[in-house]
Amino acid sequence: MSPPPQAGPATAAAAVRHPAPRHPAPLLTHRDGRLLRDGRPHRILAGSLHYFRVHPDQWADRLDRLAAMGLNTVDTYVAWNFHERRRGRARFDGWHDVERFVRLAQDAGLDVIARPGPYICAEWDNGGLPAWLTGTPGMRVRSSHRPFLDEVARWFDDLVPRLAALQAARGGPIAAVQIENEYGSYGDDHTYLSWLRDALVERGVTELLYTADGPTELMLDGGTLPGQLAAATFGSRAAQAAELLRARRPHEPFVCAEFWNGWFDHWGERHHIRSVDSAAGTLGDIIDADGSVSVYMAHGGTNFGLWAGANHDGDTFQPTVTSYDSDAPIAEHGALTAKFTALRERLLAASGTAPHRPPPADPPLLKPRTLPVVRGAGLLRALEAVSPATPSPHPLSFEELGQASGLVLYRARPRLPRGASPLTVTGLHDRAQVFVDGTPAGVLDRETGTVTVEGTGERVRLDLLVENQGRINYGPLLGQGKGILGGVRVERRLVHGWTMHRLPLDEWTAEDLGRAVSGAPAQGAAGFATARFTVAEPADAFLAFPGFGKGFVWVNGALLGRYWEIGPQVTLYLPAPFTVRGENTVTILELERLGERVEIRDRPELGPAEEYVETFE
């Protein structure tokens, strides 16, 4: 992603503020099964909103919308990889200024729940863990493996004091901090969990600490710690979850740390929704069980750039779409939905207070229009021109190339036998377009795939354009590598003598993008293209790409994300802060088939919908 212009990285000393102490004891405590705030009975009515999924110019607006919904708290993860793309180069400025986000939440009258991980899931690339970390040979994440703990300790040394300085005890809004995230769905290393708790405390966390896991015996056994509040994450069967938690922890309050009132989407599937009545009904069940709750998501936002993660169900790789709308009560572009109104009624009734602010109007939108497309450079020539070649006898993975995301163009010049031969790629993560002498020969998906290539007994130029479609964010395959992890064979013979072109699209500068677009004109169906539009006043919009196949979109140099004709997502959200008065430029990298026009629309189209059904396995 290309954030707006920012100042240089701030030092920790300059960034960490130390307000005067206000609460010598934790703001939130519990006694005899009741949650207390400053010693008085309290119910957390929270909503999830991730600062890294919302343009920073829109943080204040979205926080105000949460408050208008009747919430008293906002919770947010902290995505390690968002801050530290390169080891030792953590950023806390601009879009990465989590401290500013927390202070804006306080300005909106909200308490804050901080969820620093280090693993967050969140359908976020690699579950928030940096690719350089999981790509370290021998690394064992989410465990008491000493090299992992050492890296977490170094990261926490930078992050946690910033959060600690914004706790309620120091005059800030942070009232609770989560230990790890749904760890019982992954492992049972309680030495690791205890170490994390101690690491938070040693770095200044004094507010309420808690764990959050699915409401099953297996998950709670793996993810909870004695002496720390145990919360649950679920979307239905609230009474059953409350009964289980109270049976295990009779002296603790019932807290739903994530109430899934919607769900996320994968490419090639349907758009998941949850009906208003279903969501409001379960929220009412949590409240009726005298529970505290965090609505996940209250406002979902967007997986800008290449930050969308992926899942794996044991058989199928499932990359997540660019939108993280999640059928939330506050839509991806900030509009207030029917679900907002229904949940607001339940929340205000639960709080027993009158709304302190009216719901704001929906954000303005650009008027629809059609933009003609101007074709630019062809696919392969443009990509090889923008990056120098790295030679190797074998194809190198993204990790070996020091690249987290985007594309890698692999090239070799094997001699192909006369006639048809099978070309097989093993360990492919995630998708490869195969070209022989510049002509498309097929598309391969995960793990092992074969295409038929035609040879004359002479050498050919073999190109494989491999796309990282998002790192797995949940389950035992967390941290898998990307690129070609095995080898490439013609019949039984391995192909050697490769060059690789690194193409980290979300790190490209305006100069990189301009160099790619202005290369040799497109000869085939794929390549770069541009479209332009003018606006008198920046406003939100949605972009659609009829006739296009699969690719990536930048607006004024900022990478919005992926589009793909298989859906379900049709439109990409364009936030107003990405646009400027006057002329704006849309740049498209199309991998398969360029269309003739880009459409600006005034409403989202997220695809054919189906009701989300919760399962615990």
Automatic annotation (TrEMBL):
Residues 1-28 are annotated as: Disordered. Residues 35-346 form the Glycoside hydrolase 35 catalytic domain. Keywords: Glycosidase, Hydrolase. SUPFAM superfamilies: (Trans)glycosidases, Galactose-binding domain-like. Residues 395-503 form the Beta-galactosidase 1-like first all-beta domain. Residues 8-18 have a biased composition (Low complexity). InterPro entries: B-gal_1-like (IPR026283), BetaGal1-like_ABD1 (IPR048912), BetaGal_gal-bd (IPR048913), Galactose-bd-like_sf (IPR008979), GH (IPR017853), Gly_Hdrlase_35_cat (IPR031330), Glycoside_Hdrlase_35 (IPR001944). Residues 528-584 form the Beta-galactosidase galactose-binding domain. Belongs to the glycosyl hydrolase 35 family. This is Beta-galactosidase. It comes from Streptomyces similanensis.
